[in-house]
Write a structure and sequence with these properties.
The chain is α/β, with parallel strands linked by helices. The chain has four helices and four strands; from the N terminus they run αβαβαββα. A four-stranded parallel β-sheet has the order 1-2-3-4, with helices on one face.
């Protein structure tokens, strides 16, 4: 794997999938300028944080055929307003941000919580956030 700058990434990628936290430095970094850099055959996927993307710019890029499509499970505002421009954008699939809500995921969370309490009571804490 070769690391490249963001502009090169946006110009050359067939699929861009966002997996990052939201910070003041990256809020809205997928904007009109970066969407214009993308290949018309490229897809954008966001499963991290909605405000990483300028939603009106993405809707415009999709409706103009500037990019091939987008798959989102997060939006800038949740629950979204009915007039969100992405609801009517071409080739845009939006799913609820609820991957954690499956029975298996919830069971795993409960198992981890119980194990944390058990090991703490035994004097051997695990998954310690700060020391």
């Amino acid at each position: 794997m070769v690391a490249v700058d963001l502009d090169t990434l946006f110009r050359t990628s067939d699929v861009i999938s966002l997996h990052c936290p939201l910070t003041q430095d990256n809020r809205g970094f997928v904007n009109h300028q970066r969407l214009e850099m993308m290949k018309p055959t490229a897809f954008l996927i966001n499963t991290s944080r909605g405000p990483l993307i300028d939603e009106p710019a993405l809707a415009e890029a999709l409706n103009r055929g500037r990019i091939a499509g987008a798959g989102l499970d997060v939006l800038c505002e949740e629950p979204p307003k009915p007039d969100n421009p992405l609801f009517s954008a071409q080739n845009c699939t939006i799913t609820p941000h609820i991957a954690w809500a499956t029975k298996a995921a919830r069971q795993r969370l409960m198992d981890i919580a119980v194990a944390n309490v058990r090991t703490f009571l035994q004097g051997q804490p695990q998954n310690v956030v700060s020391r």
